[in-house]
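User: Hi! I have a protein structure encoded as tokens and I'd like to know what sequence might fold into it. I'm fairly new to this, so please keep things simple.
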């Protein structure tokens, strides 16, 4: 199953052993080395995470094993290591190896089953509201993710923007 970052952030999180939502997804924690999902960051006031291995389902709702799965980030070694050198993907600038500015990431597509990033949705924006020059870049084109920028290959293949109907089957 594939999901956009924008479809996951803000969603309620349910524990398998509780009928009501216990938190909301604040952000996704990705390993910049390989683009894999390592954790769900919960509301900033909680300062807690859920390791990706503790997520049972993302559809039709986000369900985790139990309330004990919600922990401080330093309780999961890999999450702690990633957050120590954290490089955000959303709103990060994307440039080619030769320095050409392609815009900023405004969304990305995840393969939920494999827990990896598949594509970046990149565009230039005006006042952060109007997006233009949208490009869809395969994660295979990423050279490295740094805290200040994402560097992609010079000779990368750029995809046409997907329409909503195509996204469901992407």
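Assistant: Happy to help. Inverse folding works backwards from shape to sequence: for each of the 170 positions I chose a residue that suits the local structure. Here it is:
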């Amino acid at each position: 199953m594939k999901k956009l970052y924008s479809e996951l952030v803000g969603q309620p999180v349910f524990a398998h052993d509780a009928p009501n939502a216990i938190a909301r997804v604040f952000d996704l924690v990705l390993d910049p080395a390989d683009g894999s999902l390592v954790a769900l960051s919960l509301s900033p006031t909680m300062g807690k995470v859920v390791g990706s291995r503790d997520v049972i389902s993302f559809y039709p709702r986000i369900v985790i094993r139990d309330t004990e799965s919600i922990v401080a980030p330093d309780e999961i070694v890999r999450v702690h290591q990633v957050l120590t050198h954290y490089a955000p993907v959303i709103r990060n600038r994307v440039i080619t190896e030769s320095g050409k500015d392609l815009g900023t990431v405004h969304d990305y597509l995840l393969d939920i089953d494999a827990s990896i990033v598949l594509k970046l949705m990149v565009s230039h924006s005006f006042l952060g509201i109007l997006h233009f020059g949208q490009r869809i870049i395969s994660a295979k084109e990423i050279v490295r993710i740094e805290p200040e920028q994402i560097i992609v290959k010079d000779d990368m293949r750029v995809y046409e923007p997907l329409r909503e109907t195509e996204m469901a089957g992407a």
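A useful reference point when you look it over: Residues 4 and 109 are 4 Å apart (CA to CA). Feel free to ask if any position seems puzzling.
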